[in-house]
Design goal:
Blueprint lengths: L6 E7 L7 H4 L4 H17 L5 H4 L4 E5 L6 H12 L8 E6 L2 H4 L5 H17 L6 E5 L19 H20 L3 E7 L7 H6 L2 E4 L5 H16 L3 H4 L7 H7 L5 H12 L3 H5 L6 H24 L1
Parallel strand pairs: 2-5, 2-6, 3-4, 4-5
Antiparallel strand pairs: 1-3
Helix pairs in contact: 2-4, 6-7, 9-11, 9-12, 11-14, 12-14
Bound molecules: adenosine-5'-diphosphate and magnesium ion.
């Protein structure tokens, strides 16, 4: 596999296609502030001071359960950042490292290094503030201490080393690049990788208030096409639906509305006829399914 094939997006920001990414994710505002401020500060300091002084590597880690908005926030960050920079522009480079891990034995390390320390910087050579999104980084940065060699072939370990070495070289030579790594499994992440991150932000599952806000927001978003659905956003029984959904991630909370529409032929043919009962019923089922999955996970 060619390292260039691992770059799945290379976009200049602001870009209208990314406009709603940041605001679509409903989390504690302080989490978004930390992410944005840490990035801005690193962009401010790193061109002027070496890593020996600041201890900054230009690495931000977003971790938490799947479906909580990490990837979307990282993409939105690039858009949000652009107007705050001197150049009023920023770049988003998204890389998908998965393919590299299946490279022939012994090839991964070299390829990972080439990708991160050579190819990606060449795409950002104009010095524009650049967010490099390293999504689901656990696929390459598996903990070397916790992992058995059997579960994690030696090549993956070498690739982890390559990631760390490449990040060190990027830190020194390319102060306009900020790597945002996301991970669904923080436990499995390499300690050295974690300690190199300038900031590690946990994006948690939404609580009841968060779920209610996500449901309400989803109903309003649907309302742009089907005004009848938007009316449900203010319904007092939304609390009840939200309480049933505790433990469900943001992505699946959004899916509840589509599932609820699919329950009856009438609401499929005319989504404006969705009722609060459709929603509360679907939420109860989703919540029960979640509990079942948790129980079977615990039994494993
Ligand atoms: N906190 C949230 N608020 C609103 N929508 C969310 C939230 N978390 C997830 N979503 C929805 O789920 C989709 C997928 O989220 P994603 O960024 O891929 O999550 P992750 O990377 O954590 O798995 C988002 O585009 C959004 O529609
Ligand atoms: Mg993701």
């Amino acid at each position: 596999m060619n390292v260039a094939d691992c770059v799945i997006a290379n976009e200049l920001m602001p870009d209208p296609a990314y406009e709603s990414a940041w605001s679509s994710i409903i989390v504690e505002p302080s989490l978004k502030d930390r992410l944005l401020h840490a990035t801005l500060l690193a962009l401010q300091l790193r061109p002027k001071l070496p890593p020996e002084v600041t201890a900054l590597h230009g690495l931000v880690l977003l971790h938490g359960p799947p479906g909580t908005g990490k990837t979307t926030l990282a993409r939105g960050l690039a858009h949000e950042l652009a107007p705050l920079t001197d150049s009023k522009q920023a770049r988003l480079i998204e890389i998908n490292p998965h393919g590299l891990m299946s490279a022939e034995h012994g090839q991964s390390q070299q390829k990972v290094f080439e990708l991160l320390s050579d190819h990606v910087p060449s795409l950002a050579a104009d010095g524009l503030p650049t967010i490099v999104l390293l999504d689901e980084v656990e696929s390459m940065a598996v903990s070397r201490s916790a992992a058995s060699l059997q579960a994690n072939p030696a090549d993956v370990h070498r690739a982890t080393d390559a990631v760390l070495t490449a990040l060190d070289s990027v830190a020194r030579e390319h102060p306009s690049i900020i790597t945002v790594a996301t991970s669904n499994f923080t436990d499995a992440l390499d300690e050295a990788f974690k300690s190199r991150s300038d900031v590690a932000i946990e994006i948690p599952l939404p609580d009841a208030d968060g779920i209610k806000a996500i449901l309400g927001r989803t109903l309003l978003d649907f309302g742009q096409a089907y005004p009848g659905i938007a009316k449900l956003a203010g319904d007092s029984r939304l609390d009840e639906a939200a309480c049933s959904l505790i433990g469900v991630d943001g992505r699946r909370v959004r899916k509840v509305v589509t599932e609820a529409l699919g329950r009856r032929r009438e609401s499929i043919l005319d989504p404006n006829t969705l009722t609060i009962e459709d929603l509360t019923e679907t939420s109860r089922e989703f919540g029960a399914m979640e509990l079942q999955m948790e129980a079977s996970d615990a039994a494993l």
